[in-house]
UniProtKB/TrEMBL annotation:
NCBIfam families: pheS (TIGR00468). GO terms for molecular function: ligase activity. InterPro entries: aa-tRNA-synth_II (IPR006195), aa-tRNA-synth_II/BPL/LPL (IPR045864), Phe-tRNA-synth_IIc_asu (IPR004529), Phe-tRNA_ligase_II_N (IPR004188), Phe_tRNA_ligase_alpha1_bac (IPR022911), Phenylalanyl-tRNA_Synthase (IPR002319), tRNA-bd_arm (IPR010978). PROSITE patterns: AA_TRNA_LIGASE_II. It is found in: Cytoplasm. PANTHER family: PHENYLALANINE--TRNA LIGASE, MITOCHONDRIAL (PTHR11538:SF41), PHENYLALANYL-TRNA SYNTHETASE (PTHR11538). It catalyses: tRNA(Phe) + L-phenylalanine + ATP = L-phenylalanyl-tRNA(Phe) + AMP + diphosphate + H(+). This is Phenylalanine--tRNA ligase alpha subunit. Belongs to the class-II aminoacyl-tRNA synthetase family. Phe-tRNA synthetase alpha subunit type 1 subfamily. Keywords: Aminoacyl-tRNA synthetase, ATP-binding, Cytoplasm, Ligase, Magnesium, Metal-binding, Nucleotide-binding, Protein biosynthesis. It comes from Amphibacillus indicireducens. Tetramer of two alpha and two beta subunits. Residues 109-340 form the Aminoacyl-transfer RNA synthetases class-II family profile domain. Binds 2 magnesium ions per tetramer.
Amino acid sequence: MKEKLTALQNEALEQVEQAQSLADVEKVRVAYLGKKGPITEVLRGMGKLAPEERPVVGELANKVRESIADAIETEKRILEEAALNEQLKTETIDVTLPGRPVQVGGPHLLTQLIEEIEDLFIGMGFEVREGPEVETDYYNFEALNIPKDHPARDMQDSFYITEELLMRTHTSPVQARTMGEYQGSKPVKMICPGKVYRRDSDDATHSHQFTQVEGLYVDKNVRMSDLKGVLNQFAKQFFGPEREIRLRPSFFPFTEPSVEMDISCKVCQGNGCSVCKQTGWIEILGGGMVHPKVLEMAGYDPEVYSGFAFGMGPDRIAMLKYGVDDIRHFYTNDRRFLEQYHEA
Ligand SMILES: [Zn+2]
């Protein structure tokens, strides 16, 4: 009986060792330790043994069963671990694969230019103000000395939302709003950049949407020479110290006198070329001394206060500065165009 048990044990252990899979191990378990297995059979047949032999055989049978069970458990763990390792190996992420590139955008060329202009004027003590793009007729026209029947309205035909609400045609209403807010209580020194709208037919030099930067300085004793000084400083810093400026008389309803400012042509150094239409000068902005009526409407006493205002078009400046031949490039969002001006 003892030899039979020992032989069973050896046989079982050998089979466990040879098992290739968890299924094989399970087969061995069922075969040797199952209810119909040989060991159970031995234990069942104990009754036929002599009484003194029963505990000895019983003990041995239990030991054999335990050692087979242990071997099965160990083998199971080994096989499970191997299976896990195999799974980890096949499911490994290959970190050497190149990633999908992230599309990184950048500020629009006009935004970059406007920020550059802002920096220059902040350096001269101006504050940056913003206002709504949907504006009232009052702030867009009336407060700027352009009553309903004024011919200047023809030059600024707009998109009306109601009789009294429109897409602003310039950023000047922000000046009127700021002066109205201060009510003559303190000086105003501000620039207002932003998008403006006009009912224009789009072509190479016209767009129904474009940008403006306007400036306003109202204080006691502000003179025409201050306007010239500020604009000269701006032109030299922005376009280069070698550029000359000149002021020509002009007309705007909200300034008196009014001027237009030209800078000397960079391409021909003032000698005349196709860029400057043979004049040697390129028009950059308009401005003038704030009309007394505009000051009065905003609560500033024109006998005490005076001021200057100016306005420029970043679109036009960008076209000149970067040689862009069509204003529509700024608004059609062709990335081949826009990407050329991304800052590194
Ligand atoms: Zn020129």
